[in-house]
Design brief:
Layout (H helix, E strand, L loop, with lengths): L4 H13 L10 H23 L6 H28 L4 H16 L3 H14 L14 H19 L13 H7 L2 H12 L13 H12 L14
Helix pairs in contact: 2-3, 2-5, 2-8, 3-4, 4-5, 6-9, 7-9
Length: about 230
């Protein structure tokens, strides 16, 4: 059962309260720049699932809606990424317009090619997650966050939803790590559960990712992630 409205607010505020006071925070420009890199990976992954023949029709509807929403802010985020990296945004503006047009006209091959090119130019920096120096305290905190705030929805995903909250244990096994990290960055930000800035630190994300990668799923339903 999904959280009620009050529960959503409490979950959001609680997650903000458990952020370590010494956690490194990104400024607004850095945050949007990284969100751009993450969003590109998520869009490309959603596009791949959208084109699978065995993806259910209502899941395809959800994927199209999710991609359309992401493309609506992509130009702004990529502009911020260009500013943060001191790049000339004019070079990428036309490319983003081609991506949006290709999606609207369902030219999937062109869209995938353009997205892949942009991903390579604005890659997600995985080094900030520091998997090699993951401490027991960080791992314990991450597991606690998952069990208290994520498990209820992700443990028993409903395949009837257009955008199911899939098992994170299964997701991490069925997609590249950089895409999973991107979904941890993008998926929390702006969802009904947490409508504010993503409260998870890089350590939180690294700890949960390690936990999902190295623990068998508690969920007996092992449906391939398509939606």
């Amino acid at each position: 059962m999904r959280c009620k409205l009050l529960g959503k607010v409490i979950c959001s505020l609680s997650l903000f309260l458990i952020i370590p006071i010494n956690a490194k925070e990104l400024n607004s420009l850095q945050y949007d720049a990284r969100l751009c890199s993450a969003q590109l990976l998520v869009i490309r992954g959603d596009l791949s699932r959208l084109q699978l023949d065995d993806t259910k029709h209502h899941h395809k509807t959800g994927l199209k809606q999710r991609i359309a929403g992401a493309l609506g802010t992509l130009a702004w985020l990529c502009k911020q990424n260009s500013f943060e990296k001191d790049l000339d945004f004019a070079i990428y503006k036309k490319q983003i317009e081609n991506i949006q047009y290709s999606f609207e006209t369902e030219k999937w091959q062109i869209l995938n090619t353009e997205l892949t090119a942009l991903v390579s130019k604005m890659p997600l920096n995985e080094d900030t997650f520091n998997f090699k120096q993951l401490s027991k305290n960080t791992l314990d905190t991450s597991i606690s966050i998952y069990k208290h705030y994520c498990k209820a929805c992700h443990d028993k995903p409903s395949s009837e939803s257009k955008t199911p909250a899939y098992s994170l244990f299964e997701m991490v096994k069925q997609m590249p790590r950089n895409e999973f990290l991107a979904r941890m960055i993008v998926g929390v930000h702006g969802t009904p559960k947490i409508a504010l800035r993503n409260p998870l630190t890089d350590d939180d994300i690294a700890g949960m990712t390690y936990y999902f990668e190295n623990t068998a799923s508690d969920n007996p339903t092992k449906e391939k992630i398509k939606g």
